[in-house]
Amino acid sequence: MAKTILIVDDSASMRQLVRISLASAGHTIIEACDGQDALAKLTGQKVNLIISDVNMPKLDGIGLVKALKARAEYRFTPIMMLTTESEQSKKAEGQAAGAKAWMVKPFQPQQLLAAVEKLVG
Amino acid sequence: MYLVIWAGIAVCATALFTGIVWLGLLALSAIALATLLLRPRPIASPAQALAEALPEATQPRDRDLSLLLPHAATAWADGLQQSRLLVAENIGGLLERFAAIHQRVGVSLDAAERTLEQDGVGQGLRHCTEQLHQVTEAFASRGQRQSAVLESISHLDSYTGQLQQMARHVQEIANQTNLLALNAAIEAARAGEYGRGFSVVADEVRKLSQLSATTGQSMDAKVGEINHAIQSSIETAQALTIHDQTDLARMQQLLDEVIDGLGGNLKALDQTSRELQQDARTTQHHIQAILVNLQFQDRVDQMLDHIAIDLAELLTAIATDDPALGDIDAWLRGQRERFTTREERSGQREPADAGELTFF
């Protein structure tokens, strides 16, 4: 079933690849270029899933997860981190903040679709 | 030393002309000794030569480096930024094109797989064959009905035989009656006046018998004609049936040949379709690998971003004469804290944890 998914990444090409991968399965995609932009885009917008990079300017991915979990309307919205970071300490930080999954870049479009299916399918 | 060498050569030549061997050997020894005592001339490297050729004022000094570095570093930062933009723009274009190809190949593959799952073109061929067999069966059924009609007509042949027999019986009865009438007329003549009335009756009976005989002959002739017509019709119908059966057999043969030929072509087509499908699947995997590989841009961009930040911080520190510049270890630690990729942390090529997925 088609879902609305917010992609947060400061790399335009990565946003593009995620959008192409998920749109092929019929999902509706909203894009944001960093944490602050994501919070602005989410105002008055209901999404089923948030896929976020970790290292971003202005507000990073971990900061974004913390900010979202503090808001009642997004407390139960699943968040997956999609990042080049594969350090266990960073993963633990993401888990503690409230992220549901952690995927290391580079990724295969099918892997991403399978993960999304598992989180919101 | 050069004088000794030249003198040695002159003495050696004299000894050669005069034939004094010991003098020649002595001169050669002197030449060899003088050559060994010559010192090799030092050869300057091009860079060294260039440095020596530069005037004293152009030699770099600390003061000049602090003036040059901000300008050079700004140019490096600009170059880095332009490179990042260029790479991002072009990789974005490539990603979009490859993703479109990947999607299109996927759609084609799905359609091809659906066709192949439904037994592909083979099912269509089987359907055509069934339809054609129905046509030939219809023709064969028509032939069978025609044979049944012919059999019914053949029965008429036996009826006409019976009719001819009956007509002949009528003729025989007429002949017998005629003979009886003739005898009656003789007996009536013998009776004289008393038999005159009976003679008239016998004459009428004779006329009737002659008429019956003529009618019997006529019936026999007509039945013969009918029989001939029936025989002719049966022969014509039989000839047509044989012709139809030959045509039907020929049609069946042609249909079988067409179906076999078509089947062979479709089998080859089916095989080609499956090979194409396999190739398309391989191409799709290659494109998928390209889509993964193109994500190098994100890693490279992050590393270049860190270098740009480092440069900016270094410039600020130089401009403000920051005491942090004196603590090299602390400065490098600060740099390392920014690292986000395994390559940056280890300073060498690392195997990627591509697609590693953890659910919390």
From TrEMBL, chain A:
The modification 4-aspartylphosphate is found at residue 53. Residues 4-120 form the Response regulatory domain. The keyword Phosphoprotein applies. It holds the Pfam family Response_reg. The keyword Phosphoprotein applies. InterPro entries: Bact_response_regulator, CheY-like_superfamily, Sig_transdc_resp-reg_receiver. Keywords: Phosphoprotein. CDD domains: REC_CheY4-like (cd17562). This is Response regulator.
